[in-house]
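USER: Please consider what follows.
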Amino acid sequence: MKTFSIVPENNEKSAEILCPVCGGAKFDSLWDCDGFSFKQCLSCGLLMQNPQPLFEALDKRYDEEYFRYEQENDQIFFELMLKGLSDIGFDSLYSDRKDSMSFLDIGCATGVLVRHFQDRGWISRGVELCGPAAEWGSRERNIEIFSGTVEQASFEDNSFDVVHCSHLIEHLNDPSAFLDEVFRILKPGGRFICTTPNASGLQARLFKSKWRSAIADHMFLFSVKTLSGLLREKSFTVETVKTWGGLGRGYGPVLLKSILDYLAKKLNFGDVMIISSQKR
């Protein structure tokens, strides 16, 4: 399945930024892509677009076309999200909790995971920047989705037992501020679960600028090291890191793909990572 991405407009406003992980200001040009490029922080190794489009430009990208993409693929994404949660042992973490738990999915698209947890008896909410997706999910799935950013939602302190985001953090202008907000709205002992492409995975190392996640919509590309470091910087305790996906479909024999997929999961060099962290 092709990763959704747009062709940026030539007149998008942009700005230079410092590295959100270490505050570094020195970068090395690493990957030249089609109309944009990724640079690497010389201090911590984080990959990012720099300069980056401003939020006002990014906001316009998540329109009806994006909504249709999410709507057409929501069951595929749902199954992948459940697989990731299973990999980190999510159900075993909460098997002894009998009280109603609170769950927030940021970047929830049409809200398929929000509805799943609502059906399990959780107090479940979503946040989605794409207005058409938020509106459709709220109406058709009978769930609560805030249309906008999590900062704009203005949730109270210590509101949620679990905050989840899948393939969101790489799209943000300021992942550091985002994690500050997640930490604020999590209850003490609450967990933040984040899935994102893995820049230290095998596919990123092999394909570089041709990697399927090196796209215009991704402002940052985290490795296990850089994302774990940012989480710790924001006072999260990193509990579990899992990765999956050794070789994309069509890049080799089925047997080779099966072997590499197994090794990627076993040795943590998969194409996608999921990190579970806790607010202590």
Observations:
- The chain has a mean pLDDT of 93.
- Residues 58-279 form a domain with the Rossmann fold fold (CATH 3.40.50.150).
